[in-house]
């Protein structure tokens, strides 16, 4: 039995956590001096509620303590795990990996740690692939290699104006000189971005939900074959963009599977309200086999 573990920055949706029996260790999110545990006593809706009415709360995040990891490793061992694969937020971005390493030294069973070098659902994609590998009977080393391989090739496309697009009844204005047209408001068009390098790059301008979904889908579908795609939104009000992008990708021959997730507090602390987009990567196929991951706590 191999236990699978990650941190809450992976933004792993419940369907994937349950499918692969993933134990999720929460990051701490501090809002105006009050500490919360992501996914435990603070979900996405409660987090973004702090921004309503134009509020600007003071928000920070911190990695789980070694003690939290130690408790998670022990819990997986009690449920039958003989080895543990821990897939985490990049060490250049957070001290999460270091906390996991400290705890791993005293774990009752061996722990293999993968520093993905990425964040948000990019980590979730690595967990997704590792879980599929384990479900197919992969060894600890092979599952870790599968996660690391995804870390090197996962991509994202996103906008920070998803909520503005969903709220706009008509089209947003494309530029200062453009005719806004009937029913449009006075906002500027929203840029669609990728992170192929260290800085965001603009790949399009969205005037409404449909054009945003078109631009994002074009980037995703150019990403190869057998694609696994995670569609994320921060605010629930941006659900129209979620749905529009799912419709464009769901039946595409290049796409193997689509899941939806919420952009939670540890990511929203940096992106703020309104973020929406997709992470995607070309996946492998593994032999069918019995699930080798220890069941997560309900």
State the main characteristics:
alpha/beta, 13 strands, 298 residues, 2 domains, Hypothetical Protein Tm841, Chain: A,domain 3, 34% helix, single chain, globular, 6-stranded mixed sheet, 24% strand
Descriptive notes:
The chain is of the alpha/beta class and 298 residues long. It folds into two domains: 2-153, 3-Layer(aba) Sandwich (Rossmann fold), CATH 3.40.50.10170; 155-282, Hypothetical Protein Tm841, Chain: A,domain 3 (2-Layer Sandwich), CATH 3.30.1180.10. 34% of the residues lie in helices and 24% in strands. The protein has ten helices and 13 strands. It has helices spanning 14-20, 44-49, 66-78, 96-104, 121-135, 140-153, 162-167, 209-221, 239-250, 265-271, and strands at 2-7, 22-25, 28-31, 34-37, 59-62, 83-88, 111-115, 155-159, 190-194, 201-206, 227-233, 255-262, 276-282. Helix 1 links the parallel strand 1 (2-7) and strand 2 (22-25). The longest helix is centred in the middle third of the chain and has 15 residues, at 121-135. It is globular, with a radius of gyration of 20 Å. It starts with a strand and ends in a 16-residue tail after the last strand.
């Amino acid at each position: 039995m191999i236990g699978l573990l990650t941190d809450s920055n992976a933004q792993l949706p419940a369907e994937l956590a349950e499918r692969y029996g993933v134990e999720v260790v929460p990051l701490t999110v501090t809002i105006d001096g009050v500490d919360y545990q992501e996914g435990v006593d603070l979900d996405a809706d409660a987090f973004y509620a702090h921004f309503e009415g134009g509020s600007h709360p003071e928000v920070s995040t911190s990695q789980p303590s070694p003690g939290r990891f130690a408790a998670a490793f022990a819990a997986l061992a009690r449920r039958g795990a003989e080895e543990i694969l821990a897939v985490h937020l990049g060490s250049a971005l957070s001290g999460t990996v270091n906390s996991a390493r400290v705890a791993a030294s005293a774990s009752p069973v061996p722990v293999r740690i993968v520093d993905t070098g990425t964040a948000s659902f990019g980590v979730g994609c690595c967990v997704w692939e590792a879980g599929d590998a384990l479900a197919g009977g992969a060894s600890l080393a092979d599952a870790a290699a599968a996660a690391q391989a995804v870390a090197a090739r996962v991509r994202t496309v996103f906008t920070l104006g998803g909520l503005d697009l969903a709220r706009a009844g008509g089209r947003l204005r494309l530029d200062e000189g453009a005719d806004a047209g009937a029913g449009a408001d006075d906002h500027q068009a929203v840029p669609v971005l990728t992170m192929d390098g260290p800085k965001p790059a603009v790949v399009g301008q969205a005037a409404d939900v449909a054009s945003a979904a078109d631009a994002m889908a074009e980037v995703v579908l150019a990403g190869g074959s057998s694609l696994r795609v995670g569609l994320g939104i921060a605010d629930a009000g941006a659900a129209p963009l979620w749905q529009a992008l799912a419709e464009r990708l769901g039946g595409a021959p290049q796409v193997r599977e689509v899941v939806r997730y919420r952009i939670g507090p540890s990511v929203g602390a940096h992106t703020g309200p309104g973020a929406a987009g997709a992470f995607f990567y070309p996946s492998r196929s593994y032999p069918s086999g019995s699930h080798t991951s220890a069941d997560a706590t309900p």
